[in-house]
Amino acid sequence: MRQVWIPKAGPPEVLEVREARDPLPGPRELRIRVEAIGVNFTDVLGRMGLDPDLPRLPVVPGLELAGRVDSVGNEAGTDWLGRDVIALTRLGGYSDVVCLPEHQVLARPSGMSAREGAGLLVSYLTAYQLIEVMGGLRAGQTVLVHNAGGGVGLAAVQLAIRIGARVIGSASQHKHEFLKSIGVEACIDYTAERFAPRVVEITEGRGVDLVLDPLGGWTLRQSYAALAGSGRLGVYGASSAAPGKQRSRLRQLWSRLGTPRFRPARLARENRGVFGVNLGGLWNEFDRLSGWLDELLAYYARGQIRPLVDRVYPLDEVAQAHHYLQDRQNLGKVLLEP
Q1: Range 179-204 average pLDDT
Q2: Which residues are bridge partners to 88 per DSSP?
Q3: N or C: which end of the chain has fewer CB within 10 A?
């Protein structure tokens, strides 16, 4: 098999493709020949040495994949053999062969390509938790989605539109036309203007009911300021601490200093809420994640959501994939293919 390793923290060029023997499935495991692998910003943070949940390097990153089962353990169901599947991996997904516990694998719906399957899992589960589970977004409400052109951002846009909410998208200027074509009512380039006053202007002084913020740092102050009464701020990352391709302690410190403290007394006085989302923190609650995935697959079957794949790289070009994602060129999901 071939795998991508993070041998040490650094720029995309530190990533190494290595070869090893194909693994054998354990008693309750399935072996999957991988066809597509999702690339997530969490993988980028891990490569830079900024993911506190990552084990000590070296490791094989990768959270999600799609492929076909070619072998099963002696206590796993033989009906899995030859089936097209999708799977969450926690780690080790950047590989052309993986062995995973049976409970982490789901049958891929008929008509769903391997690329769509690999693009569905992490982005849509994160967006589902932000929008429906903790954000409580309802029809007629308004949501501000930062990085609206990214994997999680587009997933959140689709879920919000499915609900019947209004969407304001924050993204680079070149993504605005596409976002408006899929139902985003107004777009803001947060790199070129202070977005909180613009949001208040768009909402005629009211503010929004929900903000989804993967940026962190100083951006959180404006995101909070853009909330209406009873508004919620969902935090699911801190990409502002990683603007370059290598870890910068100065930039981390600057981002930390810029992160506001949300004091309970102030939240109560202003009738606002702040919550955080980290899919990795739910890894031991796979039954819950499976329930969310069932809902998402039902939305997919009804045509209400559709993963958008922007670019696919061969496994050997994983460094280019990380560059492309960090340069925020992607409009949708970035994938690897063995």
Answers
A1: 92
A2: 64
A3: N
